[in-house]
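tool_call: predict_structure(chain=1)
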Amino acid sequence: MAQLAVNVVAKDQAVWSGEAKIVSAPAADGEIGILAGHLPILSVLNAGHVRITEVSGNKLDFTITGGFMSVDDDQVNIVADKVTLNTPAGA
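tool_result:
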């Protein structure tokens, strides 16, 4: 199964890096979902949530303050001013 190499970066530090099945993010034109094989894009991101499903099936949720996302050759880079990893309820 094809997968994505994903990097989530805040302006002052790397926040998360790993392999994923899907990434969804709050693009300026609306929510965008990225799967392996997606065409290259560069998109402005609004404040909101970035959701990542790891290859293992584990789901991650990040709150971002806005930034941008680039996708090229199954490599996804998300850069935001501020990124917070949200912990699931009960964790």
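agent: The domain at 4-86 is CATH 2.60.15.10 (ATP Synthase; domain 1). Proceeding to next step.
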